[in-house]
Amino acid sequence: MANFFNISLHRSATQSSHDLFRRSGVSAVHWPAVVDGIDYQAKVAGREDDPGFVAETLAPVFRTYSAVSDAPLAALYGPLSATYPSAKFFAFYRPAGAWVRSVRRHVQSRRFVPFERVVYWSYFTWQPAALSDVSDAELADFHAWHHDRIATHFRSRDNFLMLSLEGKALGPGLCAFCGLPPLPLRVVDYAMGHDLGRDPATLEAEVCE
Question: Do the beta carbons of residue 175 and residue 24 sit within 8 Å?
Fold first, then answer.
């Protein structure tokens, strides 16, 4: 049963938190598009504007793994917090300008895949087909809206943590919240084909690009 949900926007250390959970011995999934041979992303195609349906479709993943991160979780915090009230939810806040630059590099001009549509269409109700259809100002507004929404949703609860990627001791902070032994948060980016790990003494001030 899922105990930890990372509801950060993508390109906000989701791979780094996945790496931390794996090093902690926690069963974890990052980007649950195809899990155990099942193509969950294909299952939600055509229903990307229905977070409840997407969360229900991914329920087998949540029943099997303890920690799940990356899209489409950023848009699923409502149904997930209702279905898994004892789970812990967390998000990394990446400054808007750095986040916009990173998603531009990552997604570029290709069309959104279904899990990305789930996240972006939660705000852009006119359902853009690609990131190139959205301005930097609109992306910054979406970024602000997402973090305000999750902070408001969990305001009176003790099972949510938001950490700024400009902060210190991110790994130990997340571990303490999750009840895990303290570990540093390594900078990991599979999109670049390798672990970007550096000297652990410097990692926690760095951000995944």
Answer: yes
How is 132-184 classified by DSSP, letter by letter?
A: GGS-HHHHHHHHHHHHHHHHHHTTT-SSEEEEETTSS-HHHHHHHHHT-----
Joined together, the tokens standing for residue 78 give 């409502």
Q: Give the model's pLDDT for residue 110.
A: 96
Q: How far is CA 141 from CA 19, 100, 101, 123, 183, in A?
A: 29, 11, 14, 9, 33
Reduced to 3 states (helix: H, G, I; strand: E, B; else coil), residue 91 is strand
By the 10 Å C-beta count (0-12 exposed, 13-18 middle, 19+ buried), 119 is classed as: buried
Q: Are 70 and 9 in contact (CB under 8 A)?
A: no
Question: Which pLDDT value is given to residue 198?
Answer: 39
Count of CA atoms in the C-beta half-sphere (13 A) of 187:
16
Beta strands 38-39 and 34-35 are antiparallel
The SS3 assignment for 40 reads: helix
183-198 pLDDT, tens digit each: 999 999 866 443 334 3
